[in-house]
Inverse folding.
């Protein structure tokens, strides 16, 4: 399970689009050079980009929800290879992970508020009574 480090800020805006996300302060006029949080379509744009980047792996080895990624392997001996393939994609696109929020080689953990185990997706016991 992996988490992109400040995911949106890793996506550079095209120079011609930067003027669309400009803002004025008492110190002057500024614009973002990376995709900022909080804009109406930022989440959908980021998700589309992740879907495109990981298209060969999604549904087979990887699940991606915005900045959260789950690398799943059918056999333990394939997990390192599957992680390496995912890391290669991350390196290719210069995306960085938040290592404090990553867990590698685990058989189950919380993902998007659910427990993901070898048995499948289960309710998170800490969120149920």
């Amino acid at each position: 399970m992996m988490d992109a480090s400040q995911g949106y800020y890793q996506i550079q805006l095209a120079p011609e689009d930067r003027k669309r996300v400009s803002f004025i302060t008492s110190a002057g006029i500024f614009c973002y050079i990376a995709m900022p949080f909080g804009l109406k379509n930022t989440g959908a744009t980021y998700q589309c980009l992740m879907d495109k980047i990981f298209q060969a792996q999604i549904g087979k080895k990887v699940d991606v929800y915005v900045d959260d990624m789950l690398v799943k392997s059918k056999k333990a001996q394939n997990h390192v290879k599957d992680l390496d393939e995912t890391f290669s994609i991350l390196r290719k696109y210069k995306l960085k992970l938040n290592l404090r929020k990553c867990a590698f080689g685990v058989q189950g953990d919380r993902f998007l508020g659910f427990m993901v185990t070898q048995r499948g997706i289960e309710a998170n016991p800490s969120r149920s009574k």
Remarks:
- Strands lie at 2-3, 22-25, 28-31, 62-65, 68-71, 109-111, 114-117, 120-123.
